[in-house]
TrEMBL record:
One of its GO terms (cellular component) is cytosol. One of its GO terms (biological process) is DNA biosynthetic process. Transmembrane segments: none annotated. Keywords: ATP-binding, DNA synthesis, Kinase, Nucleotide-binding, Transferase. The active site is at E108. GO terms for molecular function: ATP binding; thymidine kinase activity. It catalyses: thymidine + ATP = dTMP + ADP + H(+). Belongs to the thymidine kinase family. Its EC number is 2.7.1.21. This is Thymidine kinase. Substrate binds at V191, V192, I193, G194, Y204.
Length: 225
């Protein structure tokens, strides 16, 4: 170790040996297709360009691989989050290997465990690592994901992503419908991976509240079924 051994972990987290005041836990949320993963990668790019070092994490990315992919064609390798991953241990292991970690990009954070959201808060408060989380707020029944609920409770900042996603009727779409065999599902496991490509076994479609509650997928769906 160098002189860094005299510094607290929080100072090491800053990478440059200075304690930065103001690490924050920020949660960006919105329905599918609103550009969450695109914003996650843009955030990583912006911080990396300023010389900061971060880790990109995801869970259940649409590619089903350890990467963040976006519907507009961007991709970035990522660490796949599993239930037993301790985010603090992950950062400590990187530090032990001599790498700086100034921030985490946590894509698909709605699928993380509640314990992992607590770990995000620990990283901000005790390690001075910024955590930027991106995800859905609600599941296919329009109920909060447990991790999203905890992020709403703990985050320093919560932002609704402003890219509008429209229901087929033209209203703003806030809710993610799970479509199984052409109908809006009302029961089932909270997490079932599908994509928004038509005619998959399970797919998701963004609807306005009115049509989510009515289970109305619109005239295109009616013609296709
Ligand atoms: Zn609608």
């Amino acid at each position: 170790m160098t002189d860094d051994s005299a510094l607290s972990p929080a100072c090491l987290a800053a990478g440059d040996g200075r304690l930065r005041h103001g690490a924050a836990l920020k949660f960006f949320w919105g329905p599918m297709d609103c550009g969450k993963s695109t914003l996650a990668l843009q955030m990583d790019h912006n911080h990396a360009r300023q010389g900061r070092r971060g880790l990109v994490l995801t869970r259940n990315d649409r590619s089903l691989g350890p990467q963040v992919t976006t519907r507009i064609g961007l991709a970035h390798s990522a660490i796949e989050v599993t239930d037993d991953l301790d985010l603090r241990a992950l950062v400590r292991s990187r530090w032990a290997d001599g790498f700086r970690v100034d921030y985490l990009i946590c894509d698909e954070a709605c699928f993380y465990t509640v314990a992992q959201v607590e770990q995000m808060a620990d990283l901000v408060d005790s390690y001075d690592v910024d955590v930027f989380a991106f995800g859905l707020a609600t599941d296919f029944r329009s109920a909060l994901f447990p991790a999203a609920q905890r992020l709403f409770e703990l985050a320093d900042e919560v932002s609704r992503i402003q890219v509008e996603v429209l229901c087929w009727c033209g209203r703003q779409g806030h809710l993610n419908a799970r479509v199984v065999a052409g109908a809006v599902a009302r029961e089932g496991a909270q997490v079932v991976i599908g994509d928004t490509v038509d005619h998959a076994d399970v797919r998701y479609q963004v609807l306005c509240r009115r049509h989510h509650r009515a289970g109305d997928l619109g005239p295109t769906a009616a013609r296709a079924s």
